[in-house]
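RECORD TYPE: inverse folding
INPUT: structure tokens
STRUCTURE:
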């Protein structure tokens, strides 16, 4: 996770503000849009966390081999994790 959950909330509000500014000037749409954007960002964050956990499990299975080979954990993490 690159950002804290509070940062994701902030980003959701900022995205919502920009969308509202472009599409309408109705203030009642802001809270609902904030909530939907925040939920979408948290879904993406949760997915990223699950992928990271899966990569850690894979690397754990090969930890002895990696240690013998002198492999760098961070480098192997980037190689195993899908883009």
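DESIGNED SEQUENCE:
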């Amino acid at each position: 996770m690159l950002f804290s959950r509070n940062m994701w909330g902030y980003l959701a509000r900022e995205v919502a503000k920009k969308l509202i500014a472009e599409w309408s000037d109705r203030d009642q749409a802001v809270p609902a849009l904030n909530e939907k954007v925040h939920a979408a960002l948290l879904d993406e964050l949760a997915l990223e966390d699950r992928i990271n956990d899966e990569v850690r499990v894979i690397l754990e299975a090969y930890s002895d081999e990696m240690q013998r080979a002198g492999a760098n954990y961070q480098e192997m993490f980037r190689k195993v994790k899908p883009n």
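NOTES: The radius of gyration is 19 Å.
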